[in-house]
Write a structure and sequence with these properties.
The complex is a heterodimer. Chain A is mainly alpha-helical. Chain A is built from five helices and no strands. The radius of gyration of chain B is 24 Å and the shape is elongated. In chain B, the strands form two sheets. In chain B, strands 2-1-5-3-4 form a five-stranded mixed β-sheet. Chain B has a two-stranded antiparallel sheet with strand order 6-7. The N and C termini of chain B lie far apart (70 Å). In chain B, α8 runs antiparallel to α9, α8 packs across α11 and α9 packs across α11. The chains are: A mainly alpha, B alpha+beta. Chains A and B meet through α1 and α4 of A and α7, α10 and α11 of B. Chain A: It is found in: Membrane. Chain A: Keywords: Heme, Iron, Membrane, Metal-binding, Transmembrane, Transmembrane helix. Chain A: Pfam families: Sdh_cyt (PF01127).
Chain lengths: 142, 295
């Protein structure tokens, strides 16, 4: 809306300390959504370039230089990739849980508990992420 | 002192008796004010040294485009003696009556019915007359409602809010009024009354609209208050199906109910505890039902 003076960061996202649960849920949902879209396209780019046989070259397939497996093994041997995988899981789990919460909100179920369900999805995300760490960081050197 | 101007080097503390401007005051009124303020300041000094919390420290937003010294927005400090049961409105009224008569804000009924005194208090939209000072952290920051043009001090331009409220046709419409020889009243079932009860509590204070992030970014968005108003009539059984469809047509437009992102900001700040988000969500479902008729 129009303003007769500039209050700068007093308003909007500068007010993040005063945000309520619903506002944080909205921000996190947008953020995780964009992260997942970003991951999706990176995923497609990496995998499609990793398939050496994608060109249909029979000779290349017969050589058994399995570019795909090599790419995946190469990536998985990197510590940073494992860390990013944990992050991806956290982002995806939160997006799923909060998505269910939003579905409930759209159906008009439990609207009075909307803040509690947000905190619950946060806590659940945390637990699942922490629990996944041993699996994701298994057998990788720092 | 009604159009008080301040030097830039004195950005605050209008009530401070040591203010050189106050000493240099010439008019009898300012003399009297000076004496009064000095007396009050002494009382305050005693209070402050005595017990912490006896006075309320207010930081009030000041701005007036018509006065040269106030064109730059600033905060003024006021130390108001605390009384049990004091509300934010009481405190700013005291500050206006005793310290600075140019302090401008709207208020009328002082009992959360007229909806004039919605302020941005300590980072949240609240009704001044309904907010206890004792529940707030000090200093209490009192600002005009965000996302609305500030006219002067705590007064914001409500025209846009009222435009949105009127856009949903907030009045009862029915083609066929009951026959005069028949029943003259248009009776509502208790169940239906119960359904629209909360939505009818709106006092048009504009707190929800000000708290809404979407309304801040989209000037055409109807806003929680207007949609809630539409809910009140759309859910009223006494209105015909045709008029309900007409209401839903207004609401399902691009800047209608679908702009709501369910952040629950409006529901949280509403001084009348109206479940605004719930009502908006219900209207979304009604709009879908109207358009998707498989049966």
């Amino acid at each position: 809306m129009s303003q007769s003076y500039n209050r700068g960061l007093i308003e909007d996202f500068g007010r993040w300390k005063e945000f309520s649960a619903g506002m944080w849920a909205w921000i996190f949902h947008k953020f995780t959504g964009w992260m997942l879209i970003g991951y999706l396209f990176t995923h497609i780019a990496v995998l499609s370039t990793a398939i050496g046989a994608a060109s249909g070259d029979v000779a290349l397939i017969q050589q058994e230089t399995d570019v795909y497996t090599q790419t995946i093994q190469g990536l998985e041997s990197l510590f940073i990739i494992r860390i990013l995988e944990v992050g991806l899981l956290a982002v995806a789990v939160f997006h799923i849980l909060n998505g269910i919460r939003l579905l409930m909100v759209d159906l008009g179920v439990g609207l009075t508990a909307q803040d509690k369900s947000f905190y619950a999805s946060l806590v659940l995300t945390g637990i699942i992420t922490v629990a996944s760490v041993p699996t994701f960081l298994d057998g990788v050197a720092l | 002192m009604s159009t008080q101007q301040e030097q830039p080097k004195e950005p605050e503390s209008q009530e401070a008796p040591e203010d050189p401007e106050m000493r240099g005051a010439e008019s009898p009124q300012q003399e009297r004010l000076k004496e009064k303020e000095q007396g009050l300041a002494q009382a305050e000094a005693v209070d402050e040294s005595d017990v912490e919390g006896e006075t309320v420290h207010l930081k009030v937003f000041r701005y007036d485009p018509e006065v040269e010294g106030k064109q730059e927005p600033r905060f003024d400090d006021f130390y108001v003696p605390f009384e049990k049961g004091m509300t934010v409105l009481d405190a700013v009224m005291y500050a206006r009556d005793e310290f600075d008569s140019s302090l401008t804000f709207r208020h009328s009924c002082r009992q959360a019915v007229c909806g004039s005194d919605a302020f941005f208090v300590n980072g949240r939209q609240r009704l001044g007359c309904k907010t206890q000072i004792s529940e707030l952290e000090q200093p209490v920051r009192v600002e005009p409602l965000p996302h609305q043009e500030v006219v002067k001090d705590l007064v914001v331009d409500m025209d846009h809010f009222y435009d949105q409220m009127h856009a949903v046709e907030p009045y009862f419409q029915d083609e066929d009024t009951p026959a005069t020889n028949d029943l003259e009243e248009q009776r509502q079932s208790p169940e239906n009354r119960e359904k629209i009860k909360m939505s009818s509590r709106c006092i048009w204070c504009g707190a929800c609209m000000s708290s809404c992030n979407i309304a801040a970014g989209d000037n055409q968005y109807l806003g929680p208050a207007a949609i809630n108003k539409a809910y009140k009539f759309a859910m009223d059984d006494r209105e015909g199906a045709e008029i309900k469809e007409h209401r839903l047509r207004i609401l399902e437009q691009e800047h209608g109910v679908w702009r709501c992102q369910t952040q629950f900001s409006c529901t949280e700040v509403c001084p009348k505890d109206i479940p605004l988000t719930e009502h908006i969500q219900e209207l979304k479902r009604e709009a879908v039902k109207k358009n998707l008729k498989f049966w």
